[in-house]
Amino acid sequence: MKDKILLHLLVLTLILDDFSVDCSVLQQDLKLTTKKLMENFKSLGCRVSKLGVKRKSGVEDDTTVDTHSCSAVLRIPLEFPRPRKGRKNK
């Protein structure tokens, strides 16, 4: 049920952001890893690309934090990931 709600939330963000989303803000708000967020966007049919490492400087102190970011774009025609094939039982 948690994954279903998450996917609905991601679809809503795609609709509101004109089908192109920067994952860094979502990653911080939802407290998800970049890999998990990328997998969920791919399952919706989005094309996901890594943007590299963003450096954010702290407001109160001068420390920098590295965060990986990604971009998800929903394009037509949709390309869903192919299901993995299991081993054949003999």
UniProtKB/TrEMBL annotation:
GO terms for cellular component: DNA-directed RNA polymerase complex; nucleolus. The keyword Secreted does not apply. Keywords: DNA-directed RNA polymerase, Nucleus, Signal, Transcription. It is found in: Nucleus, Nucleolus. Its main location: nucleus. GO terms for biological process: DNA-templated transcription. One of its GO terms (molecular function) is DNA binding. It holds the Pfam family RNA_pol_I_A49. InterPro entries: RNA_pol-assoc_fac_A49-like. Residues 1-23 form the signal peptide. Coiled coil: none annotated. Belongs to the eukaryotic RPA49/POLR1E RNA polymerase subunit family. This is DNA-directed RNA polymerase I subunit rpa49. It comes from Geodia barretti (Barrett's horny sponge). The lineage of its organism: Eukaryota, Metazoa, Porifera, Demospongiae, Heteroscleromorpha.
